[in-house]
Design brief:
The chain is an alpha/beta fold and 587 residues long. The protein folds into three domains: 3-152, Orthogonal Bundle (DNA polymerase, domain 1), CATH 1.10.150.110; 158-333, 2-Layer Sandwich (Beta Polymerase, domain 2), CATH 3.30.460.10; 343-347 and 422-586, TIM Barrel (Alpha-Beta Barrel). Helix 1 packs antiparallel against helix 2 (25-39), helix 1 packs parallel to helix 5 (78-86) and helix 20 runs parallel beside helix 21 (494-504). Its EC number is 2.7.7.7, 4.2.99.18. Residues 52-71, 92-111, 127-146 form the Helix-hairpin-helix DNA-binding motif class domain.
Length: 587
C-alpha cells in the first residue's frame, strides 16, 4: 500500500461524503485537506507510520491517521467500504462524468430517480435534465457527451492504476521459490496509456509437476486484492481485482517462457507482419515456440530470450514499447531501430508547480525532492494570472518568487539549479497571458490552453499556432488538453500544430501525468521526424507527482525518442542556452 493509493482512498471518502444527503461539509473538507497533505509528504508512507511521524502533520488529524494506519495494515479502510455500500450505484457511475459534481448528481438522483446510465441518457434525450434547477441545455448536452465518451472507454484503466495492481501481484509471486522467471506482459508492458486487463507470465522448472503449478495458482488466487476468481487451472488462472481490473496468470515451463512472454506481450498488429516474415523464412512462431520447417516438419529453434527470437529472424531486438506495427518491423530488419531514451538519461525536471500557484509544496520542498531523486535542476512553471482558479501569479508575486529562486540558487551554490519558468495561459485569441516584456524575463515559457475548449477545430488550431509564433514561447504544454478516461481533448489539428512548431523551433511536451500523457505517443514519432524537441514534464503539483516522469518515459519510448530528442537530458546550462538560442532564432 503506497502513499498515492491511500491518498486516492481518502479523496474517495471525501467525495462519497459529499454525495450523502446528510453530509457534514467540515468532514468532507477534512478528507480533502488530508488528501493534499498526504500527497505533499515525501518518503515511504509505511515507514512514516511505523516511525509515528504523521502525528502533528497539518491536515492529518487523529481519525484520519487511524484510517491511514488501517489501510497499511489491512489494505482497505472499513469506513470507505461502508460509504461505497451505502452510496447508490448510479451516483458512483455519475461521478465519472466530466463537469458534473456531487451537488448536480444529488439533484439528478433526487428529482429524476434514475437508477442507471441508460435511464440518465434517456432523461437527457427527453429534455428532463435541462429543466432541473441550475442545469440548462448546455449541462444536459455535456452529460450526454460524457455518457457517450464513457461508453467508448468502459472497462479500461489508466496505466498508473494498472501498474500498481500488477506490481503488487508480481512482487508477491516473486517470493515463491518455485518461480524461475516472471514478467508482466500485455499492453501494460508495451506502456499503453490505458489498459483493459493485466497479463502475467511465469515460468517454472521444465520438470515441475502439476502440484507445483497448482500451488502457485492457489497463491495467486488468494491475494488480498482479488475479488473474484473467474477461472483456475494448472496453466492459466483468471481473477478480477477489487479495483475492477481482470488479471490472467499463465504458468509455463522455463524453456517455453520467451515464446509465451512474446506472444502475450503483443500487440496483434505487431505479430501479424512478424509471422509473415517467419513464414517467408520457412518458420512459424506462436506462444509455444519458434519453429523451423524442415522437410515438412517443425523443429524448435531454441531461444533463451525474446532477443534470441528476433535474432533467429535476422532482426534487431524490438523493445516492447515499439511493438505496435508503426514501422518497427521494417526498421528492425535493417537494424535501424533507435537507441531509446531511459529514465537514467534525464538530468532535470521541467514543468512543476509550487504553493505560489496551485502546487501543494514549497519551492524548497520541490527542489529538495528533486535532489533526493538524483536530478540536477527543476524548472518551476507556476500558472499565469488568468488562471485565477489555480492561483495564477501577478507580477508582484512573480517578483517574490524570482527573489526566492535567486536566494535558493545561491544557497545551492551550483550543486542544484532552479529555473524560472511559467505555464502561461494561451488566451482565446492566441495571445499570451503575460506581455512580452515579462515573458522575456523567464528562463523558459510553457504555453498551455486551459479554457475555451469549445472552440471549433479551425479556431483552436489558429489559437495554438498564434501562441507558437510568439518569440518567447519555448514549449507547448499538454497540446490536446485531454484527461484520459474522463474527457476527450479539444478539437485541434495536431498535424498543423506540429508543422508550425517545427517551423518556429518550439518544443511540444509529453505531459507525464498519467491522467494526461499528452502529446499522445502516436504523434510523438511525427514530431521527432519533423525535428521537434520533446521535453518530458510531470506537471507535478506534489512531491509524489515528480515520480510520474516514468510514465512520460514510456510515452517517449513508444514515440521512438532518443535521449538527444528530449531537452531535459541536457545539463542546466546547456538547456538554458538551447532555450535562448531558439528564442533568438525566432526573434
Amino acid at each position: 500500500m503506497d502513499k498515492a493509493q491511500i491518498a486516492r482512498m481518502l479523496e474517495e471518502i471525501g467525495v462519497l461524503l459529499s454525495l450523502k444527503e446528510d453530509s457534514n461539509v467540515y468532514e468532507q473538507r477534512a478528507y480533502e485537506n488530508a488528501t493534499r497533505a498526504l500527497n505533499g509528504l515525501d518518503g515511504d508512507i509505511e515507514q512514516l507510520v511505523k516511525d509515528k511521524k504523521l502525528k502533528g502533520t497539518p491536515g492529518l488529524g487523529p481519525t484520519i491517521i487511524k484510517r491511514i494506519e488501517e489501510a497499511i495494515n489491512t489494505g482497505t479502510i472499513s469506513f470507505l467500504d461502508e460509504l461505497r455500500a451505502q452510496t447508490p450505484a448510479i451516483k458512483l457511475q455519475m461521478l465519472r462524468l466530466p463537469g458534473i459534481g456531487p451537488k448536480k448528481i444529488n439533484a439528478i438522483y433526487d428529482h429524476l430517480k434514475v437508477t442507471s446510465m441508460a435511464e440518465l441518457e434517456q432523461a437527457c434525450k427527453e429534455n428532463k435534465v435541462a429543466h432541473l434547477p441550475g442545469f440548462g441545455k448546455k449541462t444536459q448536452d455535456k452529460i450526454l457527451e460524457g455518457i457517450d465518451f464513457l461508453s467508448k472507454h468502459t472497462e479500461r484503466h489508466r496505466i498508473n492504476v494498472a501498474e500498481h495492481e500488477a506490481e503488487q501481484i508480481r512482487a508477491a509471486l516473486a517470493t515463491l521459490s518455485e518461480v524461475v522467471r516472471l514478467e508482466v506482459a500485455g499492453s501494460l508492458r508495451r506502456r499503453r496509456e490505458t489498459v483493459k486487463d493485466i497479463d502475467i507470465v511465469l515460468s517454472v522448472a521444465d520438470n515441475a509437476d502439476d502440484a507445483i503449478r497448482m500451488k502457485i495458482m492457489d497463491f495467486f488466487t488468494s491475494q488480498p486484492s482479488v475479488a473474484t476468481i473467474t477461472g483456475k487451472g494448472t496453466t492459466k488462472s483468471s481473477v478480477v481485482l477489487h479495483s475492477g481490473i481482470a488479471v490472467d496468470l499463465r504458468v509455463v515451463t522455463d524453456s517455453h517462457f520467451p515464446y509465451t512472454l512474446h506472444h502475450f506481450t503483443g500487440s496483434r498488429e505487431h505479430h501479424i507482419p512478424l509471422r509473415r516474415r517467419a513464414q517467408n523464412m520457412q518458420m512459424t512462431i506462436n506462444d509455444y515456440g519458434l519453429f523451423k520447417i524442415v522437410e515438412g516438419k517443425e523443429e524448435l529453434v531454441p531461444c533463451q530470450t525474446e532477443a534470441d527470437m528476433y535474432a533467429a529472424l535476422d532482426m534487431q531486438y524490438v523493445p516492447p514499447e515499439l511493438r505496435e506495427d508503426m514501422g518497427e518491423i521494417e526498421a528492425a530488419t535493417r537494424y535501424a531501430l533507435p537507441d531509446l531514451i531511459t529514465e537514467h538519461d534525464l538530468q532535470g525536471i521541467i514543468h512543476a508547480h509550487t504553493t505560489y500557484s496551485d502546487g501543494k509544496n514549497t519551492l524548497k520542498e520541490m527542489a529538495e525532492a528533486c535532489i533526493e531523486r538524483g536530478y540536477s535542476y527543476i524548472g518551476i512553471t507556476d500558472h499565469s494570472k488568468a488562471a485565477a482558479y489555480a492561483g495564477g501569479l501577478t507580477l508582484q508575486e512573480l517578483e517574490e518568487q524570482w527573489a526566492e529562486i535567486d536566494r535558493l540558487n545561491a544557497e545551492y551554490a551550483g550543486r542544484f539549479r532552479i529555473l524560472k519558468g511559467t505555464e502561461c495561459d494561451i488566451l482565446r485569441d492566441g495571445s499570451l497571458d503575460y506581455d512580452d516584456e515579462i515573458l522575456a524575463r523567464f528562463d523558459f515559457v510553457i504555453a498551455s490552453i486551459h479554457s475555451n475548449f469549445q472552440l471549433s477545430e479551425t479556431e483552436q488550431t489558429q489559437r495554438m499556432i498564434r501562441a507558437i509564433e510568439n518569440p518567447y514561447v519555448n514549449i507547448i504544454g499538454h497540446p490536446t488538453g485531454r484527461i484520459l478516461l474522463e474527457r476527450a481533448g479539444y478539437a485541434i489539428n495536431l498535424e498543423a500544430v506540429i508543422d508550425a512548431a517545427a517551423e518556429h523551433g518550439v518544443c511540444i511536451e509529453i505531459n507525464a501525468n498519467p491522467a494526461r500523457l499528452d502529446l499522445d505517443w502516436r504523434y510523438v514519432h511525427r514530431a521527432r521526424d519533423k525535428g521537434i524537441k520533446v521535453p518530458i514534464g510531470p506537471d507535478a503539483h506534489t512531491l509524489a507527482g515528480l515520480d510520474d516522469m516514468r510514465y512520460g518515459i514510456g510515452v517517449a519510448r513508444k514515440g521512438w525518442l532518443r535521449a538527444s530528442d528530449v531537452p531535459n537530458t541536457m545539463d542546466a546550462e546547456t538547456l538554458l542556452r538551447f532555450f535562448q538560442e531558439r528564442r533568438n532564432k525566432k526573434k
